[in-house]
Design brief:
about 30% helix; single chain; 9-stranded mixed sheet; 6-stranded antiparallel sheet; alpha+beta; 13 helices; about 425 residues
Length: about 425
Amino acid sequence: MVKVRPFAAIRPPKDIVTEVAAPPYDVLNSVEAKNMAGQKSLLHITKPEIDFDPILPDHDQKVYDKAVENFASWKSNGWLVQDDKPCYYVYAQTMGERTQYGIMLAANTDDYMEGRIKKHELTRKDKEDDRMIHVRIQNANIEPVFFAFKDNETIAKVVEKTIAAEPVYNFIDENNFGHKFWVIGCDSDIECLTNAFTTEVEAFYVADGHHRTAAAARVGEEKRSQNPNHTGDEEYNYFMAVCFPENQLKIIDYNRVVKDLNGLSKDELIAALSKDFVVKEESSEPYRPTHLHNFSMYLDGMWYSLETLEGRYDDSDPIGVLDVTILSNLVLDKILGIKDLRTDKRIDFVGGIRGLGELSRRVDSGEMKVAFALYPVSMDQLMNIADSGNIMPPKTTWFEPKLRSGLAIHSLD
């Protein structure tokens, strides 16, 4: 079972939450962040390179120093204030007709190291190192990670009770996504949640934030090695996560655009595809895949349906049956010569939240030559792969909405 506990969040007063809260650090580039950031925005802490003119590289020591200075300033100004006692929190996100309710809590680093926090993607050491620096210099988790867990009736009842009251925060962001936030400060509810997680929830699944999770666990190990009186109860053994029940989450498609046809003409590409797919020309209007193993392709102003032929994948292989694997093996590698999705500069990835129009736009602009849209992975597939210890190919899952940063911060003190 997982180990969790409440924490005393550092968070903005209600009247300035919309001024402080910001998109995650990796959603905006530095120029976008500089243009968006108001005086009190958390972006001055998560992307402090924007405070320099010209903007400095984000790995510059001056940028790290500025992050520490800004975090201290936000607290001294009263723009971030720590709660009086450890609490759990409910964070609700609304996108269109769908709302998902997560518990914000402190997850345990040992659970990650020992496999009870399960991942489905590989991490890159350079990105882990970068996130480690930010946790280390601030002695805090400034932004939460995004976990899923299997549905639990006890936890759901506490959430239901909590959201019957007025939320502490309630606002709509620039993408028209709704955000609500409640504090669970009742001792009996806190005890109920702690017991439910630690006796009934076997595992967490990393949905978004693999690098931040790995970095938090490594910082915990680092601090443990530096403390001769380590007991395991110190706050550095925990990090901030928002945990959602699986039935409320929806994975969005994660699509691909490619710069060239690897020397092939349009007709040669379609002929090559026809060896493994039923290729059907649709129209100039966007065509969205309707089921697993059905893909759409945009090429030369036209959308196509690609239906995978029988025998081209193994239903018993949890990785081989994924559409990202089928596309990678039969199209990107076999035909277009893209061997490594992580390093090849000829390919880029587009989150489904941007719509199919973004795929056609990038092709029509001449930046890219061809685009492929995929049917999204299911939560069952994600959890089965994580449970089996397998790793999904890069850029398989896209979750939306993203967690808003600045609603809570977890101190390691």
